[in-house]
Design brief:
The chain has 482 residues and is α+β, with helices and mostly antiparallel strands. It is built from 18 helices and 23 strands. Its EC number is 2.4.2.14.
């Protein structure tokens, strides 16, 4: 887990160009660039040219992985899919990078997925007992096995996907390329977003967020429904709705932190949702202060909302160095702490001798928060009142967010006054669960708030270690096998 912030596992993109004349690899590259915030460990692109699939993927950021002629080597094609990955632990090999490519008797397939399965361990053991060999510890490989197994008897790739979906429990928004088709799938609970767009008359695109469409000049068409499978091929696009019917439960943290503020998810603006969160915070936790500041980046919109609702002036309290790498990968705590100071710097002109309201999106372990508060104190802040635009994290997430244990959560260890003392603030206030469920005004979905409440849309394992493939098989599964 990163020093403080939460991370969502990945972002996906897919494009189908009926003409086969456009630079689908270049458009996928631009879309992944727009989705880079969803994953910085690995990225990859697969281009499909009349059934010939070419792949390039590696560890690193999009512009680094696709430098030195990589896009040109991918060439032209009718279909391309792309993926960016965040991993809860450092990725040591490019083999874990997606899109994942598999070749079997019915032809090649490429797959990129966003989310996590709660029954991945069970499915993996089932596959291994039937002779399957795994090369990674990713859910994507489990999913690819389930689809290819069904494909052996299914009349088409989309039927194979349709048959496999009921066996997959959890979050899985994904894009799949067969030799002639692009398929987009959203899990029946709708945990992670997946949208469809269009470029002119010949190109259909899918992405985890609508900001990817803006980067390539695509027009948003609609969000996929929970459980929907959309197939695009030379005949056009069609929808398979066998598994539709549930109201979606989008992870509410998509609005609080994960998504880019210029994205629209399920009809609700992320930017406006964060401002509403800040306004609710001002009503729930008012305080006498001189200035409201936000912690970059996702705390900024919430700070604006807090300032507008409270009437306290908004100010720029921090400057963020955009050229610093991610702090959690540094080898020692001392180096991580030093990088916090390099990455963020307090603006003394804004906070000196002031009573400051500092708005952030979340607090996980509290270590980085304490160092940020120290920056404000060193810059002369007289008081620091922290306001968090989400409820306290009290439970693990099983659907793609890197909270795997209560042990790391400060809210599970300490009371609110104790958190305030440990982080060095004069007061602290979290957004309530009822209000966080109201921030996405106009959204066409419900929300998963399990990490705050412990109530999940589906049954979850009793425990989930960091490497879920090491966890014991649930008793219910063992009993079924007997």
């Amino acid at each position: 887990m990163q020093n403080e912030k939460l991370h969502e596992e990945c972002g996906v993109f897919g494009i189908y160009d009926r003409s086969g004349e456009d630079e689908v690899a270049a458009k996928t590259y631009l879309a992944l660039y727009a989705l880079q915030h969803r994953g910085q460990e690995t990225c990859g692109i697969v281009v499909n040219d009349e059934g010939v699939m070419r792949s390039h993927k590696d560890r690193g950021l999009v512009p680094d992985v696709f430098g030195h002629g990589a896009l040109e080597r991918l060439g032209k094609g009718q279909i391309a899919i792309g993926h960016v990955l965040y991993a809860a632990k450092p990725v040591q090999s490019r083999s874990s990078a997606q899109p994942l490519m598999v070749r079997h008797v019915k032809g090649p397939m490429a797959l990129g997925t966003n989310g996590a399965l709660v029954n991945a361990h069970e499915l993996r053991e089932e596959i291994e007992r039937s002779g399957g060999i795994f090369h990674t510890d990713t859910d994507a490989e489990v999913i690819s096995y389930m689809i290819t197994r069904e494909r052996l008897s299914a009349p088409s790739i989309e039927v194979a996907v349709e048959r496999a979906v009921p066996r997959l429990r959890g979050a899985f928004s994904m894009v799949i390329s067969s030799p002639t088709k692009l398929i987009a799938v959203r899990d029946p609970w709708g945990f992670r977003p997946l949208s469809m767009g269009r470029i002119g008359d010949d190109q259909i695109v899918f992405a985890s967020e609508t900001c990817a469409f803006d980067s390539i000049g695509a027009t948003f068409v609609r969000d996929l429904r929970p459980g929907e499978i959309v197939v695009v091929d030379p005949k056009g696009e069609r929808s398979i709705e066998t598994h539709c019917g549930r109201r979606g439960n989008v992870c509410v943290f998509e609005y609080v932190y994960f998504a880019r503020p210029d994205s629209v998810i399920e009809g609700a603006s992320v930017h406006m949702a964060r401002q509403r969160a800040g306004a609710f915070l001002a009503k729930e936790h008012p305080v006498e202060a001189d200035v409201v500041i936000g912690v970059p980046d996702s705390g900024l919109d919430a700070a604006m909302g807090y300032a507008r609702e409270s009437g306290i002036p908004y100010g720029v309290g921090f400057i963020k160095n955009r050229y610093v790498g991610r702090t959690f990968i540094q080898p020692t705590q001392m180096e991580r702490e030093a990088l916090v100071r390099i990455k963020l710097n307090a603006v003394a002109a804004t906070v000196k001798d002031k009573r400051v309201v500092m708005v952030d999106d979340s607090i996980v372990r509290g270590t980085t928060t304490a160092h940020i508060v120290e920056l404000l104190r060193a810059a002369g802040a007289r008081e620091v009142h922290m306001r968090i635009s989400s409820p306290p994290f009290m439970n693990p997430c099983y659907f793609g967010t890197d909270i795997d244990s209560r042990d790391k959560l400060i809210a599970c260890r300490l009371s609110l006054p104790e958190i305030a003392r440990e982080t060095g603030v004069d007061s602290i206030g979290f957004l309530s669960v009822p209000d966080v469920e109201r921030i996405a005004e106009g959204a066409h979905c419900g929300f998963c708030t399990g990490c705050f409440t412990g109530k999940y849309p589906i049954e979850v394992p009793a425990e989930m270690p960091a490497n879920k493939f090491d966890c014991p098989i649930p008793e219910s599964v063992k009993n079924k096998k007997k």
